[in-house]
Amino acid sequence: MGLKALLIFALMWSKEKKEFLDITEERIKKDFGNIITQTEEYNTNYSKYYEKEMGKNLVKKFIVIDKIINKEELVKLKKYSQMLEKELSISDNRSINIDPLYLDLDQVVVATSKYRGNRIYLGENVFAELELWYHHKSFQPFLWTYLDYKDKIEFFNKIRKLYKSKVR
């Protein structure tokens, strides 16, 4: 069970460009399977990092795909996300940010192309960051865990139960 995980995508877009979310979700469904649950969209007021490239009024949500993956697919999934981001770009600016992640019984791990000291290099300019760790009957954050992952711990706990039922 340790090498398998449930596929999730974190999607961020500008409220004014929702059509790019719709296109992205359709592509993900076509390429990976149905969305079985998701968070409500939420504001990203905690960070201005993407505003210069993507505009203001950015919102985000997590979508859970009805697919169990092998964890080593994370590099390929990040490359897929980057290809789709580029395809949907306007004047070399992303219209949507797509981060693949996975969840298993013990961890939530996101793929990124940005280096930081706590990230593990996987190859092809892709890094893995452990965002949440399951301990004491709930996912727990780290010092570096993104604020929205901390805010969505109950969602990830619910998804863990779903994953647990799928792998039995």
How would you describe this protein?
By secondary structure, the chain is an alpha+beta fold. The protein has a single domain (4-167), classed as Alpha-Beta Plaits (2-Layer Sandwich), CATH 3.30.70. The protein contains 5 helices and 9 strands. It has helices spanning 18-32, 51-54, 74-87, 147-151, 153-167; strands at 4-14, 35-38, 42-43, 58-70, 96-103, 107-112, 120-123, 126-135, 138-141. Strands 1, 2, 3, 4, 5, 6, 7, 8 and 9 form a 9-stranded antiparallel sheet that branches. β5 and β6 (107-112) form a beta hairpin. The longest helix is centred in the N-terminal third of the chain and has 15 residues, at 18-32. The relative contact order is 0.20.
Return the string of H and E elements. EHEEHEHEEEEEHH
Distance from N terminus to C terminus (CA atoms, Å) equals 10 Å
Low-confidence stretches: none
- How many domains, as an integer? 1
What's the rounded overall pLDDT mean? 94
Structural class: alpha+beta
CATH architecture label name: 2-Layer Sandwich
Largest sheet: 9 strands, antiparallel
CATH fold node name? Alpha-Beta Plaits
The number of helical elements comes to 5
Shape: globular
Computed CA radius of gyration, to the nearest angstrom: 15 Å
Q: In oligomeric terms, what are we looking at?
A: single chain
Question: Approximately what portion of the residues adopt beta-strand conformation?
Answer: 35-45%
Strand segment tally:
9
User: How much helical structure, as a percent, in the residues?
Assistant: 25-40%
**CATH class type:** Alpha Beta
